[in-house]
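Supplementary Text 2. Reproducibility record for the structural model of the 283-residue chain.

All settings were left at their defaults, and a single model was retained for analysis rather than an ensemble. We include the record here because the model underlies the residue-level annotations in Supplementary Table 4.
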Amino acid sequence: MAGRNTRHNHRQILGLPVSAADCDAVVRQVIDWAHGGESRYVLLTTVYTVMLAYDSAEFREAANAADLATADGMPLVWGLRRLGVKKATQVAGPDLMPLLLKAAADHGVPVGFYGGRPEVLETLVERVRQRFAGLKVAYAWSPPFRPLTEEEDREAVRRIRASNARILFVGLGTPKQDLWIAAHRGAIPAVMLGVGQAFDLLAGARRRAPAWMTRSGLEWLFRLLCEPRRLAERYLRHNPRFLFYFTLQLLGRHEPLMEPRQVRRAPGAGNVPELKPPSPAAE
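Retained model, structure tokens:
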């Protein structure tokens, strides 16, 4: 795949290539792709993302379809440093998204938003238009909280293409947003990024962890305390497993992953593999 992390130093973390590109480098790359109207997929990688890819061949195939995978969580930054990339830095969705919006406004690149609750999306669009002078929001839609029909999916793709949005922020939650982007890479001429909670944070619907917790790699704990019922399994199950398996990788005793299994193609997405959407509870 052309450009797959090739312009940036990267390392394999439990079989998933993670780039050490910083926010500025990612912004430059995204704007460059957007100017060319290229269909690209930027994966913001967390411990949860890595463990989903570790456990699921289907999700691993989706993650490996990304053109660029950044280190969203501090544990991955520390992992990159342990693997020899000493200057690796965090590229988190809530930090990257405002930088991209400013760059899009400065460079005249139309943007779009797909996902989020209707009231959150409305507030988000209003706020970013006020904050970033000249920003062209070409598309915004909050899809229903269920898998779309083939006809609905084709219509969504048609509307996104007709809008001429060249950067599409997708806020469906992990893993749903990553499956959706991978399934539509090639069908939508935009750089697509799954930014998860960034919609809620920029709209003021949620609070982000204090900066010291983020720097210390404890943002997950802040989120867990805010939403224990929804996030307990995610963090309490996957974080210890990541530490265990990554320690094995550092010791050279990590077992190789199974080969991804073949999956069906998405309707209207050309040669992009279709990936079954998860149940709403997975968000």
